[in-house]
Amino acid sequence: MDGPGVGWYVIVAAILFATGAMGVMLRRSPLIVLLSLEIMLNAGNLTLVAFSRQFGELDGQIFALAVMAVAAGEVAVGLGLIVAMARRRLALDVDQASALRG
Amino acid sequence: MGNFLVWAVWFLAAAGCLGSGVAVVSLSNPFYSALALIGNLASLAVLYLLLAAEFLAAAQVLVYAGAVMVMFLFVIAYLGGRADAPWAGGPPLLRTAAVLAAGALLVEVVVVLGLAWGGDLRDPAEVSDSFGSPAEIGELFLTDHLLAFEITSIVLLVAAIGGVVLGTTREKDVGE
């Protein structure tokens, strides 16, 4: 691999993960929170693939594919929740969805 | 020369990745956020290609930038103006804490990476040309990782059923 080493990829993934985490914590629209979650999952995937290449083992890529499948399922359920919220005329604001708060 | 080209492609992809990531988090119109996420996923696919993960890069573009994002855009279109999400501006204390927490995550990764540097992390392993090709991934999925493969299909099935249940309209729910 004549190019950037694994460290550079991991740093990019870390910045991406921090960006996504800020989106999840700062934004209040459930749609943007879901999009930020996707960024966090993809940052994890980038780390998996980078280390898979570093150690020459394909297991990391297999794990990344499993993460992609889980992310697709998460989007299906998350978007279903958002549509259900909209249909019940609830505010699309994660701070106001507090009926289950203990 | 080849080395410089790899670095240039890496730099462009990483910059596109980080820039569009910031755009996803900061734009107030979810439609533009979703479009920025497509750019983010595409530049990640370029990084995967640089890491010899051809099948994963293709799956990323097909599954993520294709199918998942189309679903997002459909829902955003369905919600229409209600989906707009201007910066709500919570308590300043919470905002500061969120930025600090995200910064702490970043610092942790860099520190751990610095501590572990050298040894295994210095030189990448030698891999064959077929590393990350669909054939090798498929073979691993059907031999060593068969259980993970089957469980993944069950997870997807459950998520699909969950999506249908959540999306089903019941008479008493409407206009509640």
Keywords, separated by commas or semicolons:
heterodimer, A: 102 residues, mainly alpha, Helix Hairpins, 3 helices, 0% strand, elongated, B: 176 residues, Four Helix Bundle (Hemerythrin (Met), subunit A), 6 helices, globular
Describe it.
The complex is a heterodimer of chains A (102) and B (176). Chain A is mostly helical and 102 residues long. Chain A has one domain (6-87): Helix Hairpins (Orthogonal Bundle), CATH 1.10.287.3510. In chain A, α1 packs antiparallel against α2. The longest helix of chain A has 29 residues, at 59-87. The mean pLDDT of chain A is 87. Chain A has 3 helices and no strands. The N and C termini of chain A lie far apart (52 Å). With 176 residues, chain B is mainly alpha-helical. Chain B has a domain at 1-88: NADH-ubiquinone/plastoquinone oxidoreductase chain 6, subunit NuoJ (Four Helix Bundle (Hemerythrin (Met), subunit A)), CATH 1.20.120.1200. Chain B is 73% helix and 0% strand. Chain B is built from 6 helices and no strands. In chain B, α1 (2-26) runs antiparallel to α2 (30-50) and α2 (30-50) packs antiparallel against α3 (54-79). The longest helix of chain B is centred in the middle third of the chain and has 26 residues, at 54-79. Chain B is globular. The relative contact order of chain B is 0.07. The chains are: A mainly alpha (102), B mainly alpha (176). Chains A and B meet through α1, α2 and α3 of A and α1, α2, α3, α4 and α5 of B.
